[in-house]
Description:
The chain is mainly alpha-helical. The chain folds into two domains: about 1-65, Helix Hairpins; about 65-95, no CATH class. The chain is about 50% helix and about 5% strand. The protein is built from four helices and two strands. The chain has a two-stranded antiparallel sheet. Helix 2 (about 25-35) packs antiparallel against helix 3 (about 40-50). One of its GO terms (molecular function) is structural constituent of ribosome. Keywords: Mitochondrion, Ribonucleoprotein, Ribosomal protein. It comes from Citrus sinensis.
Amino acid sequence: MSTVSEKRNIEDHKRRLLATKFELKRKLYKSLYRDVNLPTEVREKYLCKLARLPRNSSFTRLRNRCIFTGRSRAVYEKFRMSRIVFRSLANQGMLMGVKKASW
């Protein structure tokens, strides 16, 4: 595995840890900010608190990556690998329960 893909996977792992750490705070601030029954000053205060959270703590910034190559596109969630790696491992018979379709 190259150092670039390792770095990508490490960054992605850090983002996932940060997102789980701030998940509760982020949801709380968002719900209080969106509550129309609260006064405007209180809602603005929670909007500022939400803006002060780290950007990488948002779940929208997470990306599913291949654990072998670090590729971010065409990644199967179930296997956590890209379609290219999946095909090569399946052709070699390295994946349990996966075989080439024929009909």
